[in-house]
Design goal:
globular, 6-stranded antiparallel beta sheet, mainly beta, Beta-galactosidase, Chain A, domain 5, 11-stranded antiparallel beta sheet
Length: about 325
């Protein structure tokens, strides 16, 4: 039975100007670069260099790290667990060019097949004006001839400028303990960023969202809420990495660890929100409420496996961009 991969798009309620994927204007090096807008928020992606998200702005105010040394800027996508490839990141996913397809308000990028992992990564970008979000759906396809277990992993870098990281998790469950000074306030875990002479990384079982605020902007990323058993071995739903000194911080989310048979794919969606906030970047009930109002009670899209038999697992959510599925 012939497998057909199709993208099902849920209609978006558009307010104002239509958001189109297009090369950014006024950039002297626009080859391979595309931009999306959603209200005041804009995102620039570089298909020529790993499909990386280079910029995320609210009007003209930048949120992502713009440092220029490798692995210090923008937002990227890896496969988990890291022990499968160690370091440096897999070049086919993180550095090499992606092919691009545009269909109206939807931008699709596809990587080369990793020589080592025998997988291919896809990234679909669109906007949800009703929700005020840029929606990214990542896919991982097993292009090898052997089963492979893998999980999706988004890594977003911001500069260490006295910001505030917070999410919904018990502080005593953040591991390894003692590396970052998380405080429990207003029902959430909060970390006022600091600097040391060591690189640090912690893990947490959150509730499907991760937030960062700095210099009057609030970034929230929403994804599937995993059970403690679902992440890849020695990985976690939420991870925070702080580079030594006052350089950059990584805000990391991971999806469920799944076994993919040859030619099977998984799908994982992350919704990005960038909004202004008033006041200082310190723990507060007002900031907690602002995030809870953004993420709401509904889950993000659940992981989806596209199988050769045509079965689909996963859920649809009203107002979301949809999911990748296969039909016989």
């Amino acid at each position: 039975m012939k497998q057909l991969l199709t993208t099902l798009l849920v209609a978006l309620v558009m307010g104002g100007q239509t958001a189109m994927a297009q090369p950014p204007q006024g950039d002297q090096d626009t080859a391979g670069k595309y931009s999306l807008t959603c209200g005041h928020m804009s995102m620039t992606i570089d298909a020529a260099k790993g499909g990386k998200i280079l910029s995320l702005k609210y009007d003209d105010r930048e949120m992502l790290s713009q440092l220029r040394w490798p692995e210090s800027f923008g937002s990227t996508f890896w496969t988990s667990p890291q022990k499968e490839w160690n370091w440096p990141p897999v070049k086919e996913f993180d550095k090499n060019p992606y092919t691009v397809e545009q269909d109206g308000k939807t931008l699709r990028m596809t990587s080369e097949v990793s020589e080592r992992l025998k997988c291919r990564v896809g990234k679909t970008f669109t906007t949800d004006e009703k929700d005020g979000a840029i929606v990214i759906t990542y896919t991982i396809t097993n292009e090898g001839d052997q089963p492979r277990s893998v999980a999706p992993w988004e890594v977003t870098r911001v500069q260490n400028e006295g910001g505030l990281i917070f999410f919904d998790a018990p502080v005593d469950g953040i591991w390894p303990a003692g590396l970052m000074d998380f405080k429990a306030q207003h029902g959430l875990a909060w970390y006022q960023t600091d600097e040391t002479n060591e690189n640090r990384k912690v893990n947490a079982d959150g509730k499907g969202w991760l937030a960062y605020c700095s210099r009057g902007l609030l970034l929230v990323k929403r994804f599937d809420d995993l059970t403690p058993e679902q992440p890849a071995p020695n990985e976690a739903e939420i991870q925070v990495y702080v580079n030594r000194g006052k350089a950059h911080i990584e805000l990391e989310g991971q999806g469920a660890y799944q076994l993919l048979q040859p030619k099977e794919s998984l799908s994982w969606t992350v919704r990005w929100y960038l909004v202004p906030f008033e006041g200082e970047a310190v723990p507060s009930e007002a900031l907690a409420k602002q995030v809870r109002d953004l993420v709401g009670p509904k889950p993000c899209l659940a992981p989806v496996v596209n199988t050769t038999s045509g079965t689909i697992s996963g859920i649809m959510q009203e107002g979301s961009m949809g999911y990748l599925g296969c039909i016989p």
